[in-house]
């Protein structure tokens, strides 16, 4: 825990007060921190948050062109499927279950590379992975980088304000960061390079990867459906890039207690299972907090899990060599005991009514 206490760059307003309670900054404080951390003229070490939002801004013109010139029933349908289902599911498959939790293992680097680039590249792995380990260790507690109890804006701008790694890590702690990232295939900076750039990933490699990924997908979409399809799907990726930043606020019930008996079994935090994110991206979030290392989080029959279907298919094809599935443990430890308890309550109620 000590390592995770200081692995992320602490915002100017801090994580907690002297009493250990969560600091809930004002909107002004959050915005001030946001623009300060995007300022690459202040320090080159702000390059990664700037780079992350630069991608979003570069997707905006595609979205505008889509609305102005290519709006039709088929482009709307394509954009909906791409943003809501394909981008969302890929985020679960790649960033969440593989990069962060290592829920499955690829047969070789080729299949890892294919899976990494299945969609338009938007979110830098480094920003997502390290901070998500902290999120699970401190879920809904001070230090959680997207603590929903601090409000919508706190979560929405977390990738800049709360998720980047600290810029003054010791060499030993930086090695631990590298160990958390090495399986992703993202090449690491040396410690000396980290001290220069303030990041795990090198900006020139990140820039090259971005240009190659976007060039490949624009050409592919163009060959399939012309500029209409290409602009529509790139615009859809931009829509998703903004929308995904709202997920943890919603997935942790906006900081309120909204867990439902027999639906949300993890009570150590405020996470909830939501139907829409579950259906379109396999994000049954409360289930995930029960078993974060599981390649499947849709444990019940009606909990569709598209991310799991991809992983399972890749396993059948031989591209995935190993995966972890905690469905059996979910039923044994949580669902079946709950059902037995309810059946017992019903029997007791019937006995009293006949007495």
Automatic annotation (TrEMBL):
Keywords: Fatty acid biosynthesis, Fatty acid metabolism, Iron, Lipid biosynthesis, Lipid metabolism, Membrane, Oxidoreductase, Transmembrane, Transmembrane helix
EC class: oxidoreductase
Residue ranges occupied by any Fatty acid desaturase domain in the UniProt entry: 72-293
Transmembrane parts of this sequence: 47-70, 76-94, 216-242, 306-323
Entry's Gene Ontology molecular function annotations: stearoyl-CoA 9-desaturase activity
Its membrane topology: Multi-pass membrane protein
Subcellular location: Membrane
EC number: 1.14.19.1
Main location: membrane
Origin superkingdom: Bacteria
InterPro entries xref list: Acyl-CoA_DS, FA_desaturase_dom
Family to which this protein belongs: Belongs to the fatty acid desaturase type 2 family.
Protein name, UniProt field: Stearoyl-CoA desaturase (Delta-9 desaturase)
Organism: Mucilaginibacter lappiensis
């Amino acid at each position: 825990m000590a390592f995770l206490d200081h692995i992320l760059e602490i915002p100017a307003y801090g994580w907690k007060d002297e009493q250990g309670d969560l600091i809930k900054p004002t909107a002004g404080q959050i915005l001030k921190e946001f623009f300060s951390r995007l300022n690459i003229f202040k320090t080159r070490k702000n390059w990664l948050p700037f780079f992350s939002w630069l991608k979003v801004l570069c997707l905006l013109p595609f979205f505008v062109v889509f609305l102005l010139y290519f709006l039709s029933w088929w482009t709307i349908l394509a954009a909906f499927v791409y943003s809501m289902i394909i981008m969302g599911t890929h985020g679960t498959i790649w960033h969440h279950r593989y990069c962060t939790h290592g829920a499955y293992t690829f047969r070789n680097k080729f299949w890892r590379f294919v899976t990494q680039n299945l969609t338009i590249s938007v979110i830098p792995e480094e920003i997502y992975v390290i901070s998500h380990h902290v999120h699970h260790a401190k879920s809904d507690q001070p230090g959680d980088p997207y603590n929903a109890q601090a409000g919508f804006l706190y979560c929405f701008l977390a990738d800049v304000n709360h998720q980047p790694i600290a810029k003054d890590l010791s060499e030993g702690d930086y090695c631990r960061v590298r160990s958390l990232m090495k399986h992703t295939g993202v090449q690491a900076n040396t410690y000396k390079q980290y001290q220069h750039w303030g990041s795990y990933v090198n900006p020139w490699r990140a820039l090259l990867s971005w240009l190659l990924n976007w060039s490949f997908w624009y050409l592919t979409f163009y060959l399939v459906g012309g500029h209409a399809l290409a602009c529509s799907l790139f615009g859809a990726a931009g829509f998703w890039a903004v929308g995904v930043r709202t997920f943890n606020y919603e997935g942790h019930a906006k900081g309120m207690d909204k867990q439902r008996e027999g639906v949300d079994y993890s009570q150590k935090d405020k996470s909830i299972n939501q139907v829409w994110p579950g259906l379109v991206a396999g994000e049954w979030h409360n289930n995930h907090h029960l078993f974060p290392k599981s390649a499947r989080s849709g444990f019940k029959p009606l909990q569709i899990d598209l991310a799991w279907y991809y992983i399972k298919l890749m396993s059948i094809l031989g591209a995935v060599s190993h995966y972890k599935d905690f469905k059996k443990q979910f039923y044994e430890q949580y669902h079946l005991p709950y059902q037995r308890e309810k059946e017992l309550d019903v029997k007791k109620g019937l006995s009293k009514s006949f007495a």
